[in-house]
Amino acid sequence: MKSLAELQAIKNRMKDKVVLRDGMEGVRVVVGMATCGIAAGARPVLNAFVEGVNKENLESKVSVTQTGCIGICQYEPVVEVFEAGKEKVTYVKMNPEKAQEVIEKHLKGGQVVSDYTIGAVTA
Amino acid sequence: MIRSQVLICGGTGCTSSGSQQIQEAFEVELEKNELQDEIKLVRTGCFGLCELGPVVIVYPDGTFYSRVTVEDVTEIVSEHLLKGRRVERLVYDDHGKAKADQKYVVCNADEGDPGAFMDRSVLEGDPHSVIEAMAICGYACGCTKGYVYVRAEYPIAVKRLGIAIEQAREYGLLGKNIFDSGFDFDLEIRLGAGAFVCGEETALMTSIEGNRGEPRPRPPFPAVKGLFGKPTVENNVETFANIPQIILRGAEWFASMGTEKSKGTKVFALGGKINHTGLVEIPMGTTLEHIVYDIGGGIPNGKKFKAAQTGGPSGGCIPASLIDTEVDYDNLTAIGCMMGSGGLIVMDEDTCMVDMAKFFLEFTVDESCGKCTPCRVGTKRLLELLDKITEGKGTMEDLDRIEDLCNYIKTNSLCGLGQTAPNPVLATLKFFREEYVAHVKDKKCPAGVCKDLLTFTIDPDKCIGCGLCARNCPVDAIAKTDYVAPRHKRPSYRIDSEKCIKCGACMSNCKFKAISKQ
Question: Which CATH number fits domain A23-122: 3.40.910.10, 2.60.40.1190, 1.20.140.10, 3.40.30.10?
Fold first, then answer.
């Protein structure tokens, strides 16, 4: 490999062999699962979302994933909800009960539970 | 006619590594080839590079041969002096490139500063960025092997990095002949066993080699003689994590952020007396005020900002008067601070600066590896002087002695740990000298932290005589008096300062704010 053109050729040749991550459409629920999040109890929250989404048969519409540290360790467990074309919603200091409410009202009903968002807590 | 001179070093260093025998071998070889009238042998004084001796220099081209052996002489004569081709394998190269058969990339993830966790978040959240950058670095420098040195106290980071490396191997992003490009690169994780000094580059490499993690003198620098004695490039997690983004978006993009001399962004771990504890990534040159009040959400309970400690036990503090400082490498160095890895601990008015300096010094005393005396003994003695001051036994001369000792440790220690260990003390002495003086002269701790200088007193006119303080006192230092305040029914209480251990339990239990400390 000596030139950019060669690198480009390798890229094109190998592109298909590396499976790219999909499932970026629909609603994405992202739970902060770094050390700070786990210490604050993010694991039960993640489980609550996974189970809740399965129970309500929302799998086709909603994907639940983990991420690293979001930066606001003080407010962990943090859950972010991404939806195409809409502003990101950040829920802070979550627990399984609050997760249940978010599934019910936000993921099913499309209504942001503004009591639990970062704006409500820090304001 | 003489067409070429061969200079052979005759200094003590090269003579003891055998330059005399080399000269004799040259004489024999030149005679054999009948070159003695064309080539002149010159025995010179010391070249100064004794480490690379025996040194031989051939003029007129000035080729600098290092570590020449008697066996090499035949080759130099037949190849260089007869045919005019330099013997490349013997030519000294600045970075040891020509001679290295193996080079290494090392990622320093031994993040040990108290209160700093930037690297952990990267390794937990996006270990792929580090792996990609190390492979790029390996390609650029010609290394085929890399090590990530992570502290064992980061179990989740270690686990996720391990998974990411495994995945990269499966995809063919690591290993032999990556994507048929002919480039080999592989990574291994090495766990740190909990020594702070292993974050120092040479100690880290010694630890990877399997030895006790102690630093070694530089030069030779790691780029010349690093891991396993081979040229090594070592960088921090955050540095590596920036690389893929810079390559994808271009150097101009990265340089568009930050200040004149410090480009890009920096991650800080915000901690201490601040509302939004956590991580922040900001462009270089953001003011401390913006970080503390806007991003960090200010100080809890409406307290006043006193200072911010940057760079953990190696750094200094920025006092409130300099809160408009634009945070970048040069500005922090200019005020006697250092950015370090990026820990940023905020302190409010309840923090005693002497106590704070003592805290960091206790840490370095614990973590000093003990190899060099200035750090091993010096920091211990420095801590004893600070202890003396917080106990109210210090003198003004002690302050001068502290300064002298700090400067001595700074200039004489072997590695970064010792060279920076006195920084918290020097910075607090510079910006908060009046607090030290208050401890020494008035025997008072202005922030009310240093226990030996505190007295707790009950205001008899505010005390209603409930006795809650006496019940909570662990040493029975509080007793009832005969005095009954005009408005109250029961007699007030009094603290016996002889018995008092200054735990503060009485003060936190008093519902009527009748107890004060000073």
Answer: 3.40.30.10
